[in-house]
């Protein structure tokens, strides 16, 4: 058995056995700390991955080679549909026009998505169905409508939540029982 210089063999044996026990403890502790450290790092990475922004594309996928292949006075509705696919929407009034709309959005964590890029491809046709104009623009020409969602005006009287729930109790008669239709003096279901 090897013993450091200056130690008696019996003392060295006791010292080595204590040292082995200490190393065993620190090794187990380091394994625990290593495992818990790795688990903590893995949990932190998973949480941070959940906080990534979401990029999304909606609508027509713009392909510049296909866009350049549609030529005025050469193509017609059929060839445009075969090249670009069905339009996003078609004009209802005026000169026949097809619109292909592309919208790229980005959603930061815990927030509403916002538009980063909008592209509008407008293909106009004459009365025979031949292409007269192909124009690519951004969304600055679109009308953004923001309806007021606070209150929708309706006819009739304003009723509370409880009146809506309990308002018809006892007012709707059985068929042939002589109760007025609609259950209210005004004749309508909401008192009008």
Structural class estimated from helices and strands: alpha+beta
List segments where confidence is low: pLDDT < 50 over at least 5 consecutive residues.
none
Q: Count the strands?
A: 5
Shape: flat
Distance between the termini: 107 Å
Our count of helices gives 4
Give the percentage of residues in beta strands. Answer: 15-25%
**Helix fraction by DSSP (H/I, runs of at least 4):** 25-40%
Helix and strand sequence = HEHHEEEEH
| Mean of residue pLDDT values | 75
Biggest beta-sheet profile? 5 strands, antiparallel
User: What's the alpha carbon Rg, rounded to whole Å?
Assistant: 38 Å
Summary, kept brief:
The chain is of the alpha+beta class and 192 residues long.
């Amino acid at each position: 058995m090897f013993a450091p210089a200056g130690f008696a063999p019996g003392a060295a044996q006791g010292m080595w056995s204590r040292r082995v026990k200490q190393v065993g403890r620190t090794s187990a502790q380091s394994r625990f700390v290593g495992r818990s450290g790795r688990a903590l790092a893995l949990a932190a990475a998973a949480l941070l991955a959940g906080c990534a922004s979401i990029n999304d594309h909606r609508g027509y996928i713009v392909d510049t080679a296909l866009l350049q292949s549609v030529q005025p006075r050469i193509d017609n509705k059929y060839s445009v549909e075969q090249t670009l696919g069905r339009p996003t929407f078609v004009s209802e009034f005026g000169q026949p026009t097809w619109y292909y709309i592309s919208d790229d959005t980005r959603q930061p964590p815990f927030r509403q998505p916002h538009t980063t890029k909008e592209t509008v491809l407008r293909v106009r046709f004459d009365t025979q169905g031949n292409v007269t104009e192909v124009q690519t623009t951004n969304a600055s020409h679109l009308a953004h409508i923001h309806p007021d969602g606070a209150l929708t005006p309706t006819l009739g009287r304003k009723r509370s939540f409880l009146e809506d729930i309990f308002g018809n109790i006892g007012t709707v008669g059985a068929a042939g029982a002589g109760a007025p239709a609609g259950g209210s003096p005004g004749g309508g279901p909401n008192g009008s």
